[in-house]
Amino acid sequence: MPVDLERRGAVALLTLNQPKVLNALSPSMIEQIEQHLDEIEGAPAARAVVITGAGERAFCAGADIKNMRTASPIEARAFARLGHDLMDRIEGFARPVVAAVNGFALGGGCELALACDIRMAADSARFGQPEITLGIIPGFGGTQRLARTTSLGFAKDLVLTGRMVDAEVALRAGLVTHVHPREELLAKALELAEGLAGGPAWALAETKRLTNLALSGDHARNLANELDTFALAFATPDQREGMDAFLEKRTPSFADIDDSPNDATGETA
Ligand code: HXC
Q1: Which of 173, 197, 221 delimits the end of a domain?
Q2: Which of 153, 174, 197 is the last residue of a domain?
Q3: I want to staple 173 with a disulfide (CB 3.0 to 4.6 A). Which of 77, 92, 124, 150 is the partner?
Q4: Which of 65, 102, 158 to mutate to test the pocket of ligand 1 (most atoms within 8 A of CB)?
């Protein structure tokens, strides 16, 4: 399988599994990730997702250059569209998604990590948007998400020079928020995701949705959206459970995903 899906407790683990080509993304890999996400969406017990790469060297070295080399503009656009749809879906996915960046995250690989909610890197990881060195530009959202996640200056440095940076530089730039020794990375990512999986699913999905709006749209409208959503949280069993558990000095036991009030918001949880 070019992409593996496994369940680890309440976490769905997606592993890009083409290590011979450093997990470079082909259209079929993208389609398979989409299918796995369909499956995860249909499995209420899978409450968080971790994405990582197989092998010792790479999270993902980008889009498959062999596959793209002879593409016409129309084919190139269709491929970029496939990638855009996947990245948008991960960014909007109603469960938290953690990238465990175990090695190279270049081009489309860096863009895949950027679509995730939390990025954790191995100390050996390297990041970059080298498209410019191929005579093209980032095409899976990198011209936008890198700047939004880090800063305009850092993003321009990476996209214009095509240079790679190590995990420590990525940490300082805000491109990742955790760095771990290579051999500990996956366990740490699964631990973090398991913690998220134990959280209140509806509140997590809504917090993600609202936070995604922070750098776009109308500020006042986004704040009004927060106000309404905050009020709606008091219609969920998780609100009462979370507050009761605090006052009773115990760990909260939040509702199953199916119990969340999706219908009340019209949003998927
Ligand atoms: C296809 C790739 C690949 C890629 C690596 N490989 N990256 N194949 N597409 N993106 C293959 C190599 O051809 C090679 O296959 C094998 O993986 C091992 O890679 P090497 O280059 O031999 O390893 P090394 O010398 O250690 O260099 C590692 C590397 C380098 C620095 C990561 O592979 C590299 O620069 N890769 C390309 C990175 C890149 O430019 N990414 C952006 C792609 S464009 P063989 O058969 O020779 O063993 C992109 C656009 C996204 O992502 C938007 C599209 C719409």
Answers
A1: 197
A2: 197
A3: 150
A4: 65
Pairing of strands 3-8, 11-16: antiparallel
- What is the tens place of the pLDDT at every residue in 207-238? 999 999 999 889 999 999 999 999 999 999 99
Clarify whether residues 193 and 212 are in a common domain.
Answer: no
Sign of CA dihedral 45, 233, 178, 61: positive
CA 20 – ligand 1 centroid, Å: 10
- Does 191 qualify as catalytic in the annotation? no
Distance, in Å, from the CA atom of 8 to the CA atom of 14, rounded to the nearest integer, reads: 10
Does ligand 1 come within 6 angstroms of the Cβ of 164?
no
Domain count, the chain: 2
pLDDT digits (tens, 9 = 90+) for 183-213: 999 999 999 999 999 999 999 999 999 999 9
pTM for the predicted model, two decimal places: 0.96
Q: Specify the amino acid at residue 202.
A: W
Indicate if 130 and 225 belong to the same structural domain. Answer: no
| Range of the structural domain that residue 24 is part of | 3-197
